[in-house]
Amino acid sequence: MRILSYVLKVLALVGIVIPAYLFLRNEYTYSSTQNHINTWNRQRVSDFRSLPDNTLNMLFLGSSHVYCTFAPELIDDMLNTESFNFGMPLQYADSTYFTLVEALKTQRPNTVVVDVYWGVLGQDFDVKQADTLLTAFDDDSLRRAYIDEIFPWNEKIKYRFGLIRYQLDFLTYYNTKLLNFLERYGWEREFGSQQGTERYDYRGFMWCDYNMLPDEYDKTNQFARLDGAAFEFSPVQLGYLDKIWKLCENKGVDLIFVTAPIAPVSMNLISNYDDINRVVKEFATQRQIPYLDYNALNRDEGLFTNDNFRDDAHLNYSGAEIVSRHFAQWYSGGIT
Questions:
Q1: How many C-beta atoms lie closer than 10 Å to residue 330's C-beta?
Q2: Which of 81, 145, 160, 229 has the highest local Cβ count within 10 Å?
Q3: Run of H or E residues at 35
Q4: What are the residue ranges spanned by the domains of the chain?
């Protein structure tokens, strides 16, 4: 009887745990499909794949700073080029390299512009940014190659479980639903919410007319207490920046490094930013890679105000117009 009782308890437990696991796994997976950013990334890949072969002159790569900063429509109009913005959220140098490899299978741009943002170059690995790339491309051969080369062994195991892989998507999705529900019944967010429009635009660029929320000037600004003196490249990401440079050299492609601007109020909160600039500039100079740091340029030339930013770190369209036109003039030799 004891054995039978034990077996029945185990079966009852299994009968509860397995359905619960399957339900949560499906909920986590579903939440990832409701992520607008994933949708925009897939659109970006789809648009790139639809381009006729060997028609691009210029390719922009890097994190979200890129796709909020460089507007191909404006740049192409000024330079008479065909460009594409292949930036993706949190894109580490390893993902930039894999994106470049994929891009060069069908395109031979004259110039590749890579955003060098310190926020994604100080860590060896991040599973969310890795999943962003793999979800966007949805290519089995790329997925296998990337996981084999990039993922630590323990992350390879965890990545197979949806409850881990889609955890952030799940939390973001249901947090948004909860906040929207509360707002319908009169609750107001402490710091307000964004007003305006954000949309996927032409050739990978994200058009947005948001302005910074009041709390981003101080209370929630992500750059508060950041000390540039502590910055150093992750050895892994440094290695992939080198691989990007070597790949461009081998393919006869001109490589340019940029650092997209963050809001002036954010720059004022950073200690020793010159140390960050120095680390990146030394790497670029050693390899004869031209480097434009728009934070340093803004400090010297006053190109932007806080009104040109959608949040503490990303430009809105008014700011993207400024950078796109400045970059086109610099690229054509109009600015030295």
A1: 16
A2: 81
A3: none
A4: 34-331
Do 68 and 122 form a contact (C-beta atoms < 8 A)? no
pLDDT of residue 19: 54
Asked whether 75 and 328 are in contact (CB, 8 A), the reply is: yes
CA–CA separation, 112 and 58 (whole Å): 6
State residue 294's pLDDT score. Answer: 98
Report pLDDT for 82: 98
Provide the token pair at 324.
Answer: 């796109």
User: Which of 175, 207, 206, 170 is CA-nearest to residue 193?
Assistant: 175
Tell me, which fold does domain 34-331 have in CATH? Rossmann fold (3.40.50)
Beta strands in the chain (DSSP E): 58-61, 83-85, 111-115, 198-200, 206-208, 254-259, 291-293
> For the chain, what is the radius of gyration of the CA atoms?
22
pLDDT computed for residue 31 by the predictor: 44
> Which residues of the chain, if any, have pLDDT below 50?
17-18, 20-34, 170, 173-174, 176-179, 181-183
Length of the chain: 336
**pLDDT of res. 286:** 97
Tokens matching residue 163:
């409850």
Which phi and psi angles does 315 have, rounded to 5°?
Answer: -75, 150
Amino acid sitting at position 49: R
Q: Give the model's pLDDT for residue 274.
A: 97
Rounded-to-integer distance, Cα 300 and Cα 304, Å: 11
**In this predicted structure, what is the pLDDT of residue 307?**
98
Q: What angle do CA 126, 143, 125 make, to 5 degrees?
A: 15
In a 10 Å sphere around its CB, with 0-12 CB exposed, 13-18 middle and 19+ buried, how is residue 190 labelled?
Answer: exposed
Interior angle at CA 41, CA 36 and CA 46, nearest 5? 125
Phi, psi of 333 (to 5 degrees): 90, 5
Q: Which long-range contacts (CB under 8 A, 24 or more apart) does 267-270 make?
A: 267/223, 267/295, 267/298, 267/299, 269/221, 269/223, 269/224, 269/225, 269/226, 270/223, 270/226, 270/227, 270/228
